[in-house]
Amino acid sequence: MKYIGVAAISIDGFLAKTDHENIAWNSKEDKSHLHKILNACDGSILGNSTYKAAKKYLDHRKLIIFSRKTEKPRNLNGNHVILNPANTPLKSFVKKLGWSKVCVLGGSHIYGYFVKHNLLDELYVTVEPVLLGSGVSLLNAQMGVKRMKLHSVKLLNRQGTILAHYKKK
Question: Is 151's pLDDT higher than 80?
Answer without folding.
Answer: yes
